[in-house]
Specification:
With 172 residues, the protein is an all-alpha fold. The protein is built from 5 helices and no strands.
């Protein structure tokens, strides 16, 4: 498979993101600076990263079982689309719960628009791979890249929040 390295590289990047998020959780708890919003961001980031890594490995596993290229890409994209829809609905519920528990930590409309755009891109690309472009890895790569971009965005937001919490704590 000519793009096997691309998918393995995406899996490695996703695992690195999950590791950074886990370190952030540990440091945030150690300094008691992990807010509800940051905990939610890091939770979603870890989920996105680990699931993206697993989804990046699906084509190699399916090809290992002897499936053809078209069936491999369709099934891989179907798995990515199913995860995208489930994750998006879970993310909305998590955001509502976080907003109820910490009403002062409201995210701006630009941040929310970026999250929605990246989620929609991930799901649409995966569905495109199921329906139209069945023999090419492009839609799955775009779907996974969108998930990782969202994970990176959440990571930056959580680091920003953690930094602010630690600065506030040191001023007290």
């Amino acid at each position: 498979m000519p793009t096997a390295d691309s998918f393995l590289n995406l899996a490695e990047i996703a695992i690195v993101f999950a590791g950074f998020a886990a370190i952030s959780v540990v440091l945030g708890r150690r300094h008691d600076g992990l807010s509800i919003a940051n905990a939610a961001r890091l939770s979603v980031m870890i989920e996105l990263s680990v699931c993206s890594a697993l989804l990046a490995l699906v084509p190699s596993v399916l090809l290992g079982f002897g499936l053809g290229a078209e069936a491999t890409w369709r099934l891989s994209c179907l798995a990515a689309a199913a995860y995208g829809v489930a994750s998006a609905s879970r993310g909305g519920a998590l955001r509502r719960r976080s907003r109820r528990q910490a009403p002062g930590e409201v995210h701006g409309p630009a941040a929310l628009a970026l999250v929605v755009l990246l989620r929609a891109t991930s799901i649409a690309a995966a569905l495109l791979g199921v329906v139209a472009v069945a023999d090419r890895p492009g839609p799955l790569l775009l779907s996974l890249a969108s998930n990782l971009a969202l994970s990176a965005f959440l990571f930056v937001g959580s680091l920003w929040g953690l930094r602010e919490a630690l600065e506030t704590r040191s001023e007290e």
